[in-house]
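Box 3.1 A note on notation
Throughout this textbook, protein chains are presented in two layers. The first layer is the amino acid sequence; the second is a token string describing backbone geometry. Keep the layers aligned when reading.
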Amino acid sequence: MVALHVKCVGRKDDWPAEAILEMLDYHDDETQFSAMERTTGWSVSIVAIMMAQGEPPRGAKPLETAVPGHPFVKELERRGIKPTKNTSW
């Protein structure tokens, strides 16, 4: 099992803002991939596909600023990994 909990606190449009992302993933009996293989392997493959399609800008940038979040999460969900998000802003 892989459990992820990320809490981001900051400001949006000069107002306090908070976002929480959570995810639980488990071994896949059908493919025999462990939760760790799924959550690391699928993420890397999604970014590689995006790069091959010219999605993120070229050059050295941190992953969290170079890869567009919504399309990335959509591709995770397509592969059966379903993060949840709660925001307050």
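Residues 2-88 form one domain. DSSP finds three helices and three strands in the chain.
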